[in-house]
Structures are given as structure tokens and as C-alpha cells.
Description:
It is built from 12 helices and 10 strands. 49% of the residues lie in helices and 16% in strands. The two termini are 28 Å apart.
Amino acid sequence: xxxxxxxxxxFSISEGIARISINRPxxxxxxxxxxxxxxxxxxxxxxxxxxVRVAILSGTGTRxxxxxxxxxxxxxxxxxxxxAMAYDQLVNQLYDALQTSRLPIIASxxxxxxxxxxxxxxxxxxxxxxxHIKVGFPVARxxxxxxxxxxxxILAQITPSQARLLMFTGRRIDAIEAQTWxxxxxxxxxxxxxxxxxxxxxxxxxxxxxxxxxTKTLVQALSSHEDVERSVTEAYETIYTSSDLKxxxxxxxxxxxxxxxxx
Length: 263
């Protein structure tokens, strides 16, 4: 699928930055299974373009970043434990694609991120949000459960007690409080969000792609305690055979800005 065939996602590339935006404002940017698949397609398009160094994930408009699962699909998806597990596995594929992508991914949150919308942001590498937005996990108010993968995403950022508080009560907290908890990395006023997101992406674009990729992999492996030995071995091989490292050292010696090529 090419980007012009995407129906619920807007995709573009400019100056080393891929921009991926959920485009379902009439549905509060809800994550239908079609949207979940199209987000993966857009991410793949970004990854295969060698010019892309970072991706920004957002939602169309300023009301909602992503509202979570599409409620129209849930009655059928949650008919039995087996259908619910199958549904969760499809959504988990998107989380895994974001976490294992070669690209650093910024969630730029101009609107609220409740339930699956907040989980989508947590699967990204960094989260920058308008300070007024709310985040939360209203599972007890609906009667559903998050998947084990989704629990992992939450527990990677906040304490078990904080996770229980949010899920037991369905409480929504604003981005300022969420930042102190660790759910949000940067909170800015709404009018500054676009510029602050662009600035963050620009800072990443000029870095060495291999160093950033290895950092992402190692943080993930060491945090989850999975594939640590393999990740460390591959990281050493990647960095200490790279042309980018030689370029970076030469640039320091010659007091100039390095030109990294990602190899």
C-alpha cells in the first residue's frame, strides 16, 4: 500500500521527518482495526525511506490525539475470550512495530489521549503534549481489561500503585501531572506544541542514526530484560564498525559539525 491509498491516516516526509497523523476527526481519531493496520503501513513507508531519521505521530485536530479503540468494533471483538485475545494480538502488532522500529518516534499530543490513545503514545519513544490535555485508562468504567502488553507499556513508565490508581478509578489526569508521573515527557502550552515538536524532531535528525537506533534497542532490552545479550552484542558490532563513529570523531578533532550517513 502506498501513502495515497491510506484512508484513515495522513502521511508525509520532509527534511528527514516522517509525519503520521490519525485522520478520523469525526470518530475522535478512534483506533479502528483499519487505522491500526494503516499506521503500520505508514511506519513501514517511513522506515524504508533512507532519508527519514525520525517520525512524528499525531492526531488530526486539537480535540483528541486518539480516543482509543473504535467502540463500533468492540461488541464483535469481545464476544468471547478467544475473539478478545485475537483482537488484542492485532493491536499488539502495532505496539511492537513502534517499539522495534529503527526510527525514534515522537507522539505529539494536541488533544486528549484516553485508553488506547494513551497506550499508543506509550508505545512511542517520546511524548510531547499540550499541557491541558487529559490522559487515563477507564477500564473499570467500561468493564474491560487491558492486554498484558498494554499493562507492560504502562508499567514501563509509572509505578504499579500509580497504574492501579488510574485503572481502578478511571481517573483522568492532565499533562502537567502526567509529566510528573512519567507518562508524558514534555508538556507545553497548546500554541507552542507544533513548534516544540518540530524543534525536538530537528534535534534528533542531526544525530547519528545508528547511535540513536542502538540506544533505542538497548533501552528497550534492558528495561524489559529481554534479548539483552543479543542486543548488546549487535550494538557493539553496529557502532564500532560504523563510518558514522569515525566521522563523529573526525568532526570533534576538526571542530566542525559531523555529517552522519547512517552507516
